[in-house]
Design a protein that fits this description.
Elements lengths: L5 E7 L6 E7 L9 E6 L5 E6 L3 E9 L4 E8 L3 E6 L4 E5 L14 E7 L2 E6 L3 E6 L2 E4 L13 E8 L2 E6 L4 E4 L4 E3 L8 E6 L5 E5 L4 E5 L2 E4 L11 E5 L2 E6 L2 E6 L2 E5 L10 E5 L2 E5 L4 E4 L4 E3 L7
Antiparallel strand pairs: 1-2, 2-3, 3-4, 5-6, 6-7, 7-8, 9-10, 10-11, 11-12, 13-14, 14-15, 15-16, 17-18, 18-19, 19-20, 21-22, 22-23, 23-24, 25-26, 26-27, 27-28
Length: 303
């Protein structure tokens, strides 16, 4: 593995001490159609695979009863890579996604595994679901080519309980057949959404906005002292954690409390929790929290 430094774009942990990352080498022009996928095994071995598209998100599916384990990487123009562990790498294209088509809706932004089904969302309010027939659009009724409109993130509890959030405070709820527009209490861009098992939903975004509640019923969490943007949101050990603008914080009651991660400033924009560990991914930093202490994870190309 080379020693070219990389910038981390997204990360996902499907099981304890396992991590998938998408990154971009620092020595390349930012417009280059390229991404590097890294995987870290529980015994701290690193592997990588390169693709000739610009990546936006990473997820994974593990189906032990079928003997299936795979990483999934999403490109902003609808490219999808399936990296089967111990098997082949397969490439797919989401029809209609991205700018490489007539009358495009825009880039894709997020990829989520919801009940072992993959969902992708993006600009123009695009939402796609992968089933046995491939990728299908489930948001035709709300698609738009209006500029500066669309989704940055999606989450849910099942196929009939999904939330998508994005530009200008837009929140949409999907009940399995219809997309319902929420009477959002904010016009700030919303970057992350997390649905808890009890039905409570947390949403975060620009200007320090944090919302708690459910469709058309939201409580604004007090973020006095923080006016930057939140980019990541995750539930861990019964608490909600936020990441953004070189800071991690925790929701305590109706307020936000900063979390001390390291003595020096860190980069952070993505949080992901699995099996007793909380991961923080920043442009140049990776940290892991076990509930007691934060530890830095050194990437071999950034040492």
């Amino acid at each position: 593995m080379g020693k070219t430094g990389v910038t981390f774009l997204d990360g996902h942990s499907p099981r304890r001490n396992s991590l998938g990352l998408i990154a971009f080498p620092n020595n390349l022009d930012g417009r280059t159609n390229f991404c590097r996928f890294f995987s870290k095994t529980p015994d701290d071995r690193w592997f990588h695979t390169d693709f000739d598209f610009q990546a936006k998100a990473v997820s994974a599916i593990i189906q032990e009863h079928k003997g299936y384990k795979a990483w999934w990487v999403l490109g902003k123009n609808g490219e999808v890579a399936e990296l089967v562990i111990g098997g082949p790498t397969n490439l797919e294209q989401i029809a209609g996604a991205g700018l490489n088509r007539p009358q495009p809706y825009g880039y894709l932004e997020s990829l989520k595994n919801i009940r072992n089904t993959l969902y992708a969302c993006g600009y123009g309010r695009q939402v796609y679901r992968r089933d046995s027939n491939g990728w299908i659009s489930i948001a035709d009724s709300i698609l738009t080519r209006e500029e500066a409109t669309g989704f940055f993130d999606i989450d849910g509890l099942d196929h009939d309980n999904l939330y998508a959030v994005g530009w200008k405070g837009e929140i949409y709820f999907y009940d399995g057949s219809r997309w319902l527009k929420d009477d959002s209490p904010t016009t700030a861009h919303l970057s992350s959404v997390k649905c808890l098992d009890d039905g409570t939903v947390f949403i975060s975004g620009d200007r320090g906005i944090v919302l708690k509640g459910s469709f058309n019923h939201w409580q604004l969490i007090e973020t006095e002292g923080f006016t930057g943007n939140w980019y990541g949101l995750e539930s861990f050990n019964g608490a909600i954690y936020l990441a953004g603008n070189a800071e991690i914080a925790r929701v305590e009651g109706s307020s936000i409390v900063p979390v001390n991660v390291a003595e020096q400033p860190i980069t952070t924009h993505r949080l992901d929790a699995r099996e007793g560990l909380l991961w923080s991914i920043g442009e140049s930093d990776i940290y892991i929290f076990d509930g007691d202490r934060w530890m830095e994870v050194k990437h071999p190309d950034n040492r």
